[in-house]
Amino acid sequence: MSDIVKKPIGITETILRDAHQSLIATRMPTEFMLPILDKMDKVGYHSVECWGGATFDASLRFLKEDPWDRLRKIRDGLKNTKTQMLFRGQNILGYRPYADDVVDNFVQRSVANGIDIIRIFDCLNDLRNLQAAVDATNRIKRQEGRGHAQIALSYTLGDAYTMEYWTDMAKKVEEMGADSICIKDMAGLLVPYKASELIKAMKEVTKLPIQLHTHYTSGVASMTYLKAVEAGVDVIDCAMSPFALGTSQPATEVMVETFRGTPYDTGFDQNLLAEIAEYFRPYRDECLANGLLNPKVMGVDIKTLLYQVPGGMLSNMVSQLKEQNAEDKYYDVLKEIPKVREDLGEPPLVTPSSQIVGTQAVFNVLMGERYKMATDQTKDMLRGKYGQTIKPMSEAVVQKVIPGEERITCRPADLIENEMHKLEAEMKEWKQQDEDILSYALFPQVATDFFKYRQAQQEKVDMTQADTGNAAYPV
pLDDT tens, 192-216? Predict the structure, then answer.
């Protein structure tokens, strides 16, 4: 029987990035991660996701840490395991598109500081917004033999997202020069039998390895992984049990046990995994006690499947309605979301498109007239600043919101001049390493505040005594 061929499933561990991003707003400090790296390095993971996503912003903004320093320390601790990051295409880790020279530089510095696999995605699945990052990774691979470009397709539902759409995208990703494909199911919308169908269809059209990333939000993720593995997926994203489930990923130990004794057996040592879990458990308890971990995000939210809206987007919407004393409009907004999404060309609902669609739906309902008021981001989406959507946008909405304006049809970054020199000139007084320019490029204000804090620490200034208004610091 040919199906007895051994095919161990690869596991990417997310506890150092997406798991704590999903459950505790990316607040796990570097110093807490370092003591356990030695044990994590012995597991045999396909990779450890430890950087990118919201870690960069949160490190600078809330933890007063240098994200580049975190990466170097994690790299030192994971001597035998590949490191992985999440990268928002032309937006890098920020919220606007950057010039190609910034993208190129960021990829170079990420690999130089220790990243092996760069997972690159775009909120509209507009492949033009991914090409510069893939090209930069491939250039380094040719020169230094390091770096792996993985393109992540944001999984979503809707008329336009047929099986042909996904198989066509898989072929295009291979043609672009990517090393692997990830199906990125940020809202937990991929159900088990659909996953089986999707993986089989994609495997027929591409030789690239396929990785599956999902969230437990809707309660089906572990079953989805089981069917996907049986259908031939190569790698799945999991989180160690103390930070698994809820809005995070299925638990690593559970998946390891599920496939034990089958052709997909990972061969991981459960005793070693138990020691790692034991290390993270007290921290989880501490986060529950201090309110950083809200029990609400740990359950199953079936509304995710009913309304096809990611959990984070729902909670955002609820808080917007609360502020306006309009919680009774909840269901009206839920009905409005798919209509707005349709008007905007049916984009996947992932950062930042989910926030754009959600906020506009709230406005449409509260104003009593659709698009009476449009957010700047809605306008930019209609202008084509984020890229091309799968379906055309509503002409009536375009005419109402941005009448007579010229729209962008080229790749948005083609309109952006190289900006590394300009950025360096703006922040040169704070520069202590080349990477600082990139931190500043992504988050100018937050990075500047961090640089001031760093300088004060180095000069042993008492920040509580500092007259920050006049930039006078007692030494």
Answer: 999 999 999 999 999 999 999 999 9
Q: What are the φ and ψ backbone dihedral angles of 19, each rounded to 5 degrees?
A: -60, -50
Question: Confidence class of residue 464 from pLDDT cuts 50, 70 and 90?
Answer: low
For the range 135-140, what are the long-range contacts, defined as Cβ-Cβ under 8 Å and sequence gap of 24 or more? 135/177, 136/103, 136/104, 136/107, 136/108, 137/107, 137/111, 138/177, 140/107, 140/108, 140/111
If phi > 0 it is left, if psi is from -120 to 50 it is alpha, else beta; for residue 232 that is left
The structure tokens listed for 410 are 């080229």
Q: Phi first, then psi: what are they for 154, rounded to 5°?
A: -70, 115
Distance CA 244, CA 247 (A): 8
Phi, psi of 297 (to 5 degrees): -85, 0
Q: What pLDDT, on the 0 to 100 scale, is given for residue 312?
A: 74
Buried b (16+ CB within 10 A) or exposed e, 235-254: bbbbbbbbbbbbbbbbbbbe
Q: Say how far apart CA 384 and CA 348 lie, in whole Å.
A: 15
d(CA 372, CA 457): 49
pTM (global) more than 0.70:
yes
**Residue 316: how many CB atoms within 10 A of its CB?**
17
End-to-end CA distance of the chain: give it in Å, rounded: 76
**Helix H segments across 251-350?**
252-258, 270-289, 303-307, 311-323, 330-343
Residue with tokens 């059209």: 205
Instruction: Determine the Cα–Cα distance for residues 229 and 7; give it in Å rounded to an integer.
Output: 10
**Number of DSSP helices (H) and strands (E) in the chain, helices first:** 21, 8
- Which tens digit of pLDDT belongs to each residue from 383-441? 999 999 999 999 999 999 999 999 999 999 999 999 999 999 999 999 999 999 999 99
Q: What is the crossing angle of helices 420-427 and 435-442, to 10°? A: 100
- CA pair distance 309, 338, nearest whole angstrom: 9
Q: How many CB atoms lie within 10 A of CB 298?
A: 15
- Integer-rounded Cα Rg, in Å, for the chain is 22
